[in-house]
What does this fold into?
Amino acid sequence: MRKDYSSWSLFTKGLRHNEGWDPAWRSAEPKPSYDVVIVGAGGHGLATAYYLAKEHGLRNVAVIEKGYLGGGNTARNTTIVRSNYLWDEAALLYEHALKLWEGLTEDLNFNVMFSQRGVFNLGHTLQDMRDIERRVNANNLNGIDALVLDAAEVKRRIPILNTAKTARYPVLGASFQPRGGIARHDAVAWGFARAASKYGVDIIENCEVIGMDIANGRIVGLETTRGPIRSERVGCVASGHSSVLAKMAGIRMPIESHPLQAFVSESMKPVLDTVVMSNAVHGYASQSDKGELVIGAGIDHYTSYTQRGSPHIIEHTAAAIIELFPMFSRVRMNRQWGGIVDTTPDACPIISKTKIKGLYFNCGWGTGGFKATPGSGNVFAHTIAKDDPHPLNRAFDLARFSTGHLIDEHGAAGVAH
Amino acid sequence: MFVFFCPHCGENREEEEFGYGGEAFIPRPSAPETLDDDAWGDYLFMRKNPKGWHWEMWSHNTGCRKFFVVKRNTATNAIAGSWTLSDGRKAYDAEGGAT
It folds into this structure.
């Protein structure tokens, strides 16, 4: 059993030049069988395993990962956390996640550096402002903190923002969620991995699923690059590769996988102490604790699994950010990358049972999955453990694409796709 | 940045001139009123989204404004070729409609 981190352990290990720390989690060899196998060791998959062990007493659990832990979209997002979605179903799901974020560092005994620095969604047209009013009112009715700010107040809170009336798309106001913010994305993966591992969950890297064993409409095991693993319950949390896994089970998914690019600048003194998003000029930015600007924008329009996109999207993103923050025009960019996002027709996730008994999918988070990490794992663990959806994810069933009960969140998703 | 050959214009042009049209050759049901919800939902929303060769439509937005078909590998970004819709359909069928 690994010891909890504490001020005392930091002090004593510090005296020994930080030698002798235990590895945060145990890298396991695959056993022949498990009660539950989670496919995908990103934030959502690891959170699922953690809540399965913590809340449902399922400890004979494996999380298998084709690459390395947290190396997919968990490491590639822009770390924004908020819950200001329009429709009840989505708002309550993301708010569930936000409430878990607020206690996550203590719960995991791992500092996920959750910083509630607020999130602004800018409005640039009268229609933007009407939509913002409507969304803020809907949020307040759902008990979610949100307020409408006018341009002068936005300028007061973000002095470096260009609110000039002569701008091509002048800022007319914003919605503001004070409890929103950012978190350290890698720490989320590491923290969940460590906490799950402590409960006995096996984390198995470099283990890719290459086939599913299905008998009489029920999943009985997986074929992997490290041999067969038996399990009667399998949860797939593979984001961009969900269609690939679903095809192995003969299931069609309403998902298209697109590259979403992001980049960070060189480190600078603090200039931006909040998160700014704009649908109209289409960019979003925050400043990390290391001082880097973290910038993202829209997806590449074609489907791809290549984890890179086209340069003109970068140019478009940079143009949007400079439109909002003219002083950033001289900032040098350090790194640029792409992640593969699993977009759905209604910009909402699929957290669902399937026609194969014992096979569950948690996917379709598209461009906004990071913010939901703990909530997603929490309700998906419930879905797997009880073989029945949690009340908060009942509406996110795969069947909604037959019944027509879509939850259209393109407006609040913040990224056009 | 992709460079696509537009079979209508007979020119290689950069990606910015084109718009993505999604998966190609999804047949519109001939009698939609006879379909059940699952079949109609499948037509509207379900996509192959393969990791590998993908038959897809692009439109030449700033050129001839016509749609054409591209066979592109989504795992490598390799492009096998461009066809008009009718020629592409023949090539697609000759492969057995495989992804």
